[in-house]
Amino acid sequence: MTSNPCPRASMAFEIVAIKEKSNWSKFKDNSFSLFNVIDSILDATHAKGDLFRSSRVLPLASVPPCNLQIEEIGGQDDSGSSCTSSFYKFFPPVHEASNLTDLKLLPSDGLEDTLAQDTFKEPIQHDSGSQTFGDGVLVAMDVSEDEEGGGEEEEEAGKDSARPTSRYEEHKWQRVERLIAEVREFGEEIVDFNELAGVYDFPIDKFQRLAIQAFLRGSSVVVSAPTSSGKTLIAEAAAVATVAKRRRLFYTTPLKALSNQKYREFRTTFGEHNVGLLTGDSVINKDAQILIMTTEILRNMMYQSIGMVSSGSKLFHVDVVVLDEVHYLSDISRGTVWEEIVIYCPKEVQLICLSATVANPDELAGWIEQIHGKTELVTSTKRPVPLEWHFSLKNSLWPLLDEKGTKINRKLSTAYLQPSTSKIDSYTDDRTRKNKFNRNEQRSTKIVGISKKTHLSKNDVTIIRRSQVPQIKDTLRHLMAKDMLPAIWFIFSRRGCDAAVQYLEDCMLLDECETSEVELELCRFRKQYPDAIREVAVKGLLQGVSAHHAGCLPLWKSFVEELFQRGLVKVVFATETLAAGINMPARTAVISSLSKRGESGRTLLSSNELLQMAGRAGRRGIDEVGHVVLIQTPYEGAEESCELLFAGLEPLVSQFTASYGMVLNLLAGTKITRATRKADKSKAYSAGRTLEEARKLVEQSFGNYVGSNVMLTAKEELGKIRNEVHLLSQQVTDDALHRKCQEQLLEAEYTEISSIQEELRAEKRLRTELRQQMELQRMAAWKSLLDEFETGQLPFICLQYKDSESVQRIVSAVYMGMLSSFYAPQDYRDSDIKGSKPNFGYMEGEGSSKPAYYVALGSDNSWYIFTEKWIKMIYKSGLPNSLTDGVALPRENLRQLLVKNESRWEKLVESEFGSVWSTEGSLETWSWSLNVPVLGSLSEDDEVKNWSQEYQFAVECYRKQRTRVARLKKELTNTKGFKEFKKVVDMVNYTKEKIERLEARSHRLTKRIVQIEPSGWKEFLQIGKVIQESGALDVNTHVMYPLGETASAIRGENELWLAMVLRNKVFLDLKPAQFAAVIGSLVSEGIKIRPWKANSYIYEPSSTVNNVVKILEEQRSSFLQIQDKYGVKIACGLDSQFSGMVEAWASGLTWRELMMDCAMDDGDLARLLRRTIDLLAQIPKLPDIDPEVQNNALVAANVMDRAPISELAG
């Protein structure tokens, strides 16, 4: 039987009376099979006890899938307001064929009719509101008015909804087209706020109205509002007005993925002919009235325009520029781009700057007004969907804040928590969900209240917090019980996200209908993009769980996003990159930790980062409230959560820095390749800006604007602080103390006190020496004992140290052995441990007095590297180093797990006797860490106290000396005049503390002044000197040489270095795939091998590619010397480690072949290939590049740009 396309009008079905928003959220704005849609409605209404007034539709299991678009005719709107009744239309897209062969309908008289025709006929309208086709089959039901429990108001609302106005029958794109047609017929004067608001079928928020009205007045606009509050609507309304007036708008985003998403959205609203896309390697309809692009693209377009004297032609005839996510201005690596756009943008262009909430939007608006023109600020702190904050413990989910929302919920205070072995049920309705969880995982500890007066040591606090850390299933169980799904669960590592999905492999979050829908979508996706399927994630996806991070292919991430938006994925474990702009809201956002590991170790989240992730919670028009869940961790509790939450927003901070592209484009004058061409004389090129003119532009940065307002005040305050510190310092010298004592005490009293003090200082120095000697003897005793455990069983040990906040940490662990048996010195990499190499002692031949480093796995599933100093106790019990036949010994097994662990090491504490380093364990080490007993279960009888006579003698000497010091202190306090002396000393100590506070304030002010000091110009001059010496531009005459001409047109990290490479004649003998491999070596920064992948490898580059890279390495060394000479610190990328992968892909290998046992994540390889394609796509457009090289670049880019990494695939 053949399916035929049919018009929408002939496929309309009206379904009525869905009262619960949560039910509607399951299928709103998505495509579903007819069976699933109607079945979901029946389930939802019957489950809630609502009367389903069109219940005579009886879908059968045999109904074939038929994609349906869903349009809401009345009832709930996007602003979240609700109606008593709602009407929805279901119809297939025009372009799809539909075949509803086995749908059975039960008319009101109780007789069954069967709809079994190949095509649909035009409907016949009935007075009752129902429709029949020519053969009498009923396909749309009328609405009865005798609903049980419904009052007159509900009946009237139902009547109104049953007769929607034409405004609601139209799609948004139809209303936009109608408005554009009216403007072109009656003139631009009719474009006002009411006309633009009429495009939408829901009320416009106040901040949106104010921003649109400011735009219509001709002002530039800065909008600062919470995430997901609807800022894009402002840009869309501006685009409607701009297109209606036959003008042009540029919409910029910081991410290619976000640009692609906005392109699809605007294309739906304005039509393909009105919208274009420009992302460097993707060019679609570049002359369209609405052009979506990445921010760097617009900056480069402005570079091209600022060199033109002829200002008669505006910047590509653009009238409006939208800068989305303008808070990226604070981004360290990319913030300069946003500032450059504002500085270079012609004043006649209106700017619409959309920002998340920040602390200083007034400064941003003031800066733009000063350098660009009239600018109005619109701010909003109100979220359309309010947030509720929760805190997850092992067996419960509590509100984070008190009833007023001003401070911590007292029940979450550490003083109210103590561990207990009792088991309780947190929620009564958990029983209904037990079939979805492994009962063995439902272990919990009970939270009980204890007196506030109970004194808890720092160690007690740590133990309590560790006892309350929930497993993922614990928190998920609470979310399900409170109907808080779907959720985005932020975990700050790829492995953590993948491990979380694997951990929930026995949890089914979907019903049978939803599982079938996912299976169907998976089949479609596999058929369309067979190489993009992430096989390891399929099982989790069928259970409603998925991971979303940079290690996944963009196509797969888009697929997960689509399923999540349709309600077919209930939990997404994602890294924080998901919070940046992508439209993927959820009911709940779960944040697994308040800190994350970075290049400099573990750092606390900023308040802006926390709120950015929290902003994903709450779906407008669907959820009454959004939920944010913070989770107890071993080191972070509810107190830290509240402290960060109430810390306040961080201000935008300028990151303006000069670059080669900036200097070349600002100073460029006559181009030497054009000087002799008569044809070019008609083009009016400037003679190049003078250095003074360039300086005025550079010093217009946002940072300099902020600095000009606060610099003077900060310097005045700093001067006062330094004067006060100078005066106070004179009061705490030894001479000053001596004079004050002489004034306050009798000479005899002061002489006696001074004599005892001198003796006391000498005895304290001796006590310190004896303590050090005792420590050395203790370490020597531990060392001889640990040597005995290098073979045989793995003993349990106790480590003790104070962290950076002087909190006492005690960790039970299992001892593995000396570090030298795990890491050979030649295999050690500096980057493995916080970027610096600790002084690991490899003891062979170095003498026993020098501390050695050892390795242990802690009960918290963290690896520790330490010296003997940090060992508190060694125990006789441990893990046996022998297992059943055929299984690796525990020591060897754990050694392999440590070697392949790629997590960064963090220094916890250091001393003259060595440091303690730590890194997170893996999923494989987790089961081993569970076998390490807690300290309370290890008895004193199990302790090993094999102390040497030397250590015991040192301990005895230290004790005697400590007693002697205590006796002298007592003797000092008993002297006459001691009370007066103590008052003088206390006053001096108070003054010293005051000096410390003032110096801390001075340090903060100095740091702030450095931030706001006029920036950019010094770097500008330094880069200019490098450009001059490299022969790219004569800074004095502004003559641009071919090298500079090429560099000025490149988009990249180091434009001058890339130009040097691309102009190299060594490329002339390369094939396209080899050329692509070399280009890949220039853009591989940040790409890593994942060593935990067993038996994995990467393709090696050909010998030809290796030889070319060696030649380039010599040139790179010379160029780096020039940079170092002038103090320029801009990276010059060149790493051939992954060139073989690029060469293989460019040679035609399939994705499946490339990724087979590959040591790289899919997303990393895709990102490397996309970067390579991006640079290759630029080369044919660059000036003064050999045509053969340009042709090879074009060929290679075309070959490489294929699924599953195609930028616009899907």
Automatic annotation (TrEMBL):
Residues 212-376 form the Helicase ATP-binding domain. It comes from the Eukaryota. One of its GO terms (molecular function) is ATP binding. Its EC number is 3.6.4.-. Gene3D superfamilies: 1.10.3380.30, P-loop containing nucleotide triphosphate hydrolases. Residues 483-667 form the Helicase C-terminal domain. Keywords: ATP-binding, Helicase, Hydrolase, Nucleotide-binding. The keyword ATP-binding applies. SUPFAM superfamilies: P-loop containing nucleoside triphosphate hydrolases. SMART domains: DEXDc, DSHCT, HELICc. It holds the Pfam family SH3_ISE2. GO terms for cellular component: Ski complex. One of its GO terms (biological process) is nuclear-transcribed mRNA catabolic process, 3'-5' exonucleolytic nonsense-mediated decay. Residues 144-157 have a biased composition (Acidic residues). The keyword rRNA-binding does not apply. Residues 144-168 are annotated as: Disordered. Residues 158-168 have a biased composition (Basic and acidic residues). This is DEAD-box ATP-dependent RNA helicase ISE2, chloroplastic.
